[in-house]
């Protein structure tokens, strides 16, 4: 690569929820970006917002397979690889658990090999799910987790744990510079309306006047990070000057119960929608709150969008999608 060439950035999973925001921001900053995605959980409308933008290339491909030539032929120009490729919502990653596991292990391996060949820096989006149903609260990076390796979520949780192990092995062997983000619940526009994640579920139910479903008694807690804050954190982490072999928690430490979240969504809708309780899914974590001290100290990052503001923006976005009928009937 010529010295004056700023190179290219590869974003695997760039047509998904977080990926589409990340790609847009990287393009805004003047980068050339290749988005590699198998379109498994991507929304076509996310991709439409990116197509045609200067510097953007879309390559359809599955990272569990050898990477397409349309990507590898740019190896001498790729300087950064973000790996966001993996269905993130439980109903979606449980549809084909074998593929979810292979995406995390084999897919991450393919991208790490490309990083090694290209001399590119590699960022893995891991997850708070590596902590399982945590006994330590809030969750610090040093906590090793309480995860079932036999349950229905294991394809994702254990897949991500294996992906972290592989990523740090590459770094320890001096084969690639790596960064590992442990992402906690993130929400915002471009989410799939019917993928079973709590924020999109509640908003779509409220908008369509259907009953609001709460799993369990609603006392389980979560902490929600708005997507623009997450994208900012991912870019800071990628550009972090340290090669420390440490994962970094990224999320919003503002913790609330799912019941409280539902009340906020109902208040936004202005309707008196009934709340209906359903059984808790197996292995659902009871508490989730990131300790983000490391991200604050090392990346100078903390979330800036509060929940009321982020929820209102997300609600308005879903309302617009519904008005333009981009939300499938079963979700609305
Ligand atoms: N959104 C969250 O709250 C959250 C929380 C923790 C971790 N994460 C992680 O962040 C990343 C992005 O999450 P998201 O919410 O944007 O999910 P998403 O499902 O919206 O996006 C994932 C993207 O990856 C693509 N993909 C899946 N498997 C692939 C494969 N084998 N090959 C190529 N492309 C593939 C999908 O088509 C989709 O476009 C995921 O790795 C997820 O595990 C997200």
UniProtKB/TrEMBL annotation:
Residues 276-295 are annotated as: Disordered. Keywords: Decarboxylase, Lyase, NAD. Residues 9-251 form the NAD-dependent epimerase/dehydratase domain. Coiled coil: none annotated. InterPro entries: Epimerase_deHydtase, NAD(P)-bd_dom_sf, UXS-like. Pfam families: Epimerase. Residues 280-292 have a biased composition (Basic and acidic residues). Its cofactor is NAD(+). PANTHER family: UDP-GLUCURONIC ACID DECARBOXYLASE 1 (PTHR43078:SF6), UDP-GLUCURONIC ACID DECARBOXYLASE-RELATED (PTHR43078). This is SDR family oxidoreductase. It comes from Sphingomonas aurea.
């Amino acid at each position: 690569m010529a010295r004056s060439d700023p190179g290219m950035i590869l974003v695997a999973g760039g047509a998904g929820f977080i990926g589409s925001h990340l790609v847009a921001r990287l393009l805004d900053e003047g980068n050339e970006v290749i988005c590699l995605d198998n379109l498994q959980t991507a929304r076509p409308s996310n991709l439409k917002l990116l197509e045609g933008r200067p510097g953007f290339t879309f390559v359809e491909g599955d990272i569990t397979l050898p990477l397409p030539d349309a990507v590898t032929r740019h190896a001498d120009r790729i300087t950064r690889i973000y790996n966001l490729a993996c269905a993130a919502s439980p109903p979606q990653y449980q549809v084909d658990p074998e593929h979810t596991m292979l995406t995390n292990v084999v897919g991450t391996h393919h991208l790490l090999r490309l990083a090694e060949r290209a001399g590119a820096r590699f960022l893995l989006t891991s997850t708070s799910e590596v902590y399982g149903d945590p006994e330590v609260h809030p969750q610090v990076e040093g906590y090793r987790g309480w995860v079932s390796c036999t349950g229905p979520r294991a394809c994702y949780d254990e897949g991500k744990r294996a992906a972290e192990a592989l990523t740090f092995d590459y770094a320890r062997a001096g084969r690639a510079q790596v960064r590992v983000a442990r992402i906690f619940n993130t929400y915002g526009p471009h989410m799939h309306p019917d993928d079973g994640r709590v924020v999109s579920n509640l908003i779509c139910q409220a908008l369509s006047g259907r009953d609001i479903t709460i799993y369990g008694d609603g006392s389980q807690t979560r902490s929600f990070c708005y997507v623009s804050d997450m994208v900012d954190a991912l870019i800071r982490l990628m550009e972090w000057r340290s090669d420390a072999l440490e994962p970094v928690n990224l999320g919003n430490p503002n913790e609330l119960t799912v019941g409280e979240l539902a009340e906020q969504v109902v208040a936004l809708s202005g309707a008196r929608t009934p709340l209906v309780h359903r059984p808790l899914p197996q292995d659902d974590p009871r508490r989730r709150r990131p300790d983000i001290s490391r991200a604050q100290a090392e990346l100078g990052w903390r979330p800036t969008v509060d929940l009321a503001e982020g929820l209102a923006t997300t609600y308005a976005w879903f309302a617009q999608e519904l008005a333009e009928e981009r939300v499938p009937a079963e979700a609305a």
